[in-house]
Design brief:
heterodimer; A: alpha/beta; Rossmann fold; 2 domains; six-stranded mixed beta sheet; four-stranded antiparallel beta sheet; 10 helices; B: mainly alpha; MetI-like fold
């Protein structure tokens, strides 16, 4: 068995709001192994994005423990053990694509203290943006901006990639294309990926394991192993095996209510 | 884009030409009105006599324009610097903001014409009270806009900075400060003209130099041609400041275009 990269044990999260406290997550326990592509799927507001932020040490859990690569999430954050891709690219508009990708190298002087595993230009061509190095975000389409943000998350060569509905705001054609690209990048870099989505086909196409969440407060309802062969071509979506998996997930989600 | 397909020079010419035509039209109406209604020269001078005053009294106008320019520039710089520093402090210290922001608003409501004599009493007859008033008039719009601008940073960009373990100063440098520049320039465009107004009002009392002084003096002496010439020069100074700020904005805030 591969080593455990992310371990959440009995994680609960309660937000204090002006309208009282809201429980976002209840007793979530899950593990992600090295090299896994794991998706979290559930209805909107089930706390799956919150869980990603807990793992990234952007938020602290109310109860339970989170370990990232054998240590507290904060250590993993300080050591840049993960890259984060947000739902919206969040690019700095005053920086070119290249300068946006190299931002993580500049912050905290990381690039001076470490040997950068990738050159920004190299990553831009990995995500299919060769020739756009000097373009500003406003000159790029939504899909292209999201590619830049993926390259930015990869620039420090993190062993883990946390992705929060990265393709949720894109049209279906672009999304399908980027799904394919992401699988290619996953194979090329060997990164462990934890991916939040509310698209069933996306979860099946990308992952080898899927955690199905209940509505708020989010709990793990079911863990589904996707044993489709790898590498996956888009045509796999038309096979009976693929459809079998999507209906398993759909049933599980329906059961959660 | 409405300007697509035209050369920048043609666009600039068009932008300049229209207001110039309007101004020429107004001068013509002014001249005709004096002739038709036989307005005496000590009430309203003819455009031609104002032109003559501008040429004949140019040494005197220049002599009085220099202190006004220096006071406006000094006040503009001081007011903006203090406002930017205060905004940076407010964004990082909410207690300070809650304590001092209302005070800043209260000071703003005091009429400048009433503060001017008080400051002359406090600071004497030199440059100091004029610079102080120009600074005071500059301070408020910049403070309000800067606080808003520093807070306007993209949510995901801020989360990214947290994931990258960025320090507060890095967050300001990489995200908050560039995000605030469009806001700062909106404030500075307002302040560029109002700082001249502040200096002018301050010169109404307790001084014997400056365009404000010249305006008061010529009003009492019924030297209306020179009075109007002084107004033209004041307006030209304010316009020049406005253009300088706009050019600076054009150079520094390229991504907003």
């Amino acid at each position: 068995m591969a080593p455990i990269e992310i371990a959440c044990r009995d994680v609960s999260m309660v937000f204090a709001t002006s309208a009282g406290s809201v429980q976002a997550l209840a007793n979530v326990t899950l593990e992600v192994e090295r090299g896994d592509f794991v998706s979290l799927i559930g209805p909107s507001g089930c706390g799956k994005s919150t869980l990603l932020r807990l793992i990234a040490d952007v938020l602290q859990p109310t109860a339970g423990s989170i370990e990232v690569r054998g240590g507290p999430a904060m250590h993993a954050r300080l050591a840049r053990e993960f890259g984060f891709v947000f739902q919206h690219p969040g690019l700095l508009l005053w920086r070119t694509a290249q300068a946006n990708v190299s931002l993580p190298l500049e912050v905290g002087g990381w690039g001076r203290r470490h040997d950068p595993p990738h050159q920004p230009d190299e990553l831009l061509s990995l995500v299919g943006l060769k020739g756009f190095e000097h373009a500003y975000p406003r000159q790029l389409s939504g899909g292209m901006q999201q590619r830049v943000s993926i390259a930015r998350a990869l620039v420090t060569g993190p062993p883990i990639l946390l992705m929060d509905e990265p393709f949720g705001a894109l049209d279906e054609i672009t999304r399908d294309h980027l799904n394919q690209e992401l699988l290619r990048i996953w194979v090329a870099t060997g990164t462990t990926i934890l991916f939040v989505t509310h698209s069933i086909p996306e979860a099946v196409y990308l992952s080898n394991r899927v955690f199905v969440f209940t509505p708020r407060p989010g709990r793990v309802l079911e863990q589904v192993r996707i044993d489709l062969p790898s590498p996956r071509a888009p045509s796999i979506k038309d096979t009976p095996e693929f459809v079998k998996h999507t209906s398993t997930l759909r049933r599980a989600l329906a059961q959660g209510g | 884009m409405p300007t697509a397909g035209r050369s920048p020079r043609a666009v600039l010419l068009r932008r300049l030409l229209l207001p110039l035509i309007v101004i020429a039209g107004l001068v013509l109406v002014w001249d005709l009105a004096i002739r038709v209604f036989a307005v005496p020269a000590y009430v309203v001078p003819t455009p031609a006599s104002v032109g003559q005053a501008l040429v004949k009294e140019r040494a005197r106008l220049l002599d009085n324009a220099i202190p006004t320019i220096l006071e406006s520039l000094g006040g503009f710089a001081l007011g903006n610097l203090v406002a930017i520093a205060a905004a940076l402090a407010f964004v990082h210290n909410k207690v300070l903001e809650r304590a001092l922001y209302p005070v800043a608003v209260a000071v703003r409501t005091l009429p400048i014409v009433a503060i001017a004599p008080i400051l002359v009493l406090l600071l004497g007859n030199g440059y100091a009270p004029k610079v102080a008033i120009a600074a005071l008039i500059t301070f408020f719009p910049t403070l309000v806009n800067m606080v808003e601008g520093l807070e306007s940073a993209d949510v995901q960009a801020m989360e990214l900075m947290h994931v990258l373990s960025a320090s507060k100063s890095e967050i300001v440098r990489y995200v908050r400060w560039p995000s605030s520049l469009p806001y700062l320039f909106s404030a500075m465009r307002i302040a560029s003209t109002s700082s001249v107004l502040g200096a002018l009002v301050a010169e109404w009392i307790g001084t014997n130099r400056g365009l404000g002084y010249l305006i008061v003096l010529t009003t009492y002496d019924f030297r209306t041609a020179l009075l109007y010439a002084a107004m033209v020069v004041t307006s030209a100074i304010a316009l020049a400041f406005f253009f300088l700020v706009s050019i600076l904005e054009w150079l520094l805030v390229r991504w907003e275009r």
